[in-house]
Amino acid sequence: MAKTVDSFRFLDLASRKIVKSWMEREPKHDIPWTPLRKPLAECTVAFVSSAAIALKDDQPFDQEGERRNPWWGDPSFRIIPRGATERDVRLYHLHIDTRIGEQDLDCVLPLRRLEELRAEGFVGQVAPSHYAFMGYLLKPKEFLERSVPAMIARMKQEAVDVVALVPV
Amino acid sequence: MGLAAREFEAAGFATVTLSMIPNFTASVGAPRIAAIEHPFSSPMGQAGDAQGQRQVLRAVLEVLTTAQRPGEIVHLPFEWTEPPNPLPGHVEKPPIVQLIKRKPWLYLKFVSGDIPEADTP
What we know:
heterodimer; B: alpha/beta; 2 domains; 12% strand; flat
């Protein structure tokens, strides 16, 4: 029998209740749809990670701001260039075990795996830029109105076809 | 993540959203969902398991060609048999968890989605 993923397996009881309550109150959405216009083997792929990854020489995500006000999350984003590895980055998310991604970045942002799939011809190109933000955003307005449009503009400049979103 | 996926899709990119909580991701209207039963700190698979991570990534990207309708969830077959947090030692608890431990009544605000502007710990 085909597997059905259990949405609640890795959530504790308190988090399950929160997620279920939010789901129930979510209005019905019209869902946008962009068809894949060419074979994957000809597509340029960009990743978006919510693991709050930043290059070591870039500005860290604001952990102190969240510690001061736990209802707040840093709405900014960082560029992670093609070829980055765990040697080049730090993770600033306060809701996950960041040591795993800092030990092996491909656990949260699989750039090496994407290069391998490109070498196999499974995808066309790896985008020059990938994107990371901090996924704990109870009020995502600023993120959606400022950070996401800036990512979209850069993706268009870099002729991205496909966006793969990898949450934590 | 689902909310961001909608924006990218509407801007003309074909998106696929990996999700460990696919029911929730679907509720916010993500266009294509690759559901996976992996822990939150390691969505792509075990550290050091390049082959396993590659299988996951291939399966995620294939959803772009198999999903036929907006909002479709494709359940990936991968199993996680290790403990959810394989590394020993202390990890700082999220600030909101620390706050609610001190002020348990605030949990109800979290559940109801009535998010305060600020509450200094």
